[in-house]
Amino acid sequence: MEKARNMKKHVSVVAALHIGFGVLALIGALIVFISVNFAQSFVHGDEVAELVLTAVKVILPALIALISVLSVIGGIGLLSYREWSRILIIVMSAINCLNVPIGTAKGIYSIWALLQDETIRLFQGDNAGPGEEITTSNHGKTD
Fold first, then answer.
1. For residues 71 and 18, is the Cβ–Cβ distance under 8 A?
2. Residue 141 within any structural domain of the chain
3. Neighbouring C-alpha atoms within 13 Å toward the C-beta of 71
4. Residue 116: inside a domain, yes or no?
5. What is the value of pTM for the model shown?
6. Range of the domain at 70
């Protein structure tokens, strides 16, 4: 039972990390959009530069925002012990590993925490310790 409490703490930390960094990345996406929009005002008449900056202005912030929103949604789902959120955050953590060094550390920690046997049992609703009755949760689903 002690290990279950410890893993619940790890899951809460992983959720907080993904929510916090996701919100920061959304702010970063907005800053990128504004910065590229500002830079675009200096390239009047150069059609190629305007085309490239327009593509960067749209694609880069949209990609950052998509990854960020998925991390925030997954982090919120982790707090409710939803199995889909555990899988989503594992995928997002693998993507975060490309963001050296902080994203790598966050990704490795998140993957480690979410792949532990006790964590998997938490998300499946098996919260019983030795000698206790196994309880399952349907997570709001009705039969």
1. yes
2. no
3. 27
4. yes
5. 0.81
6. 2-124
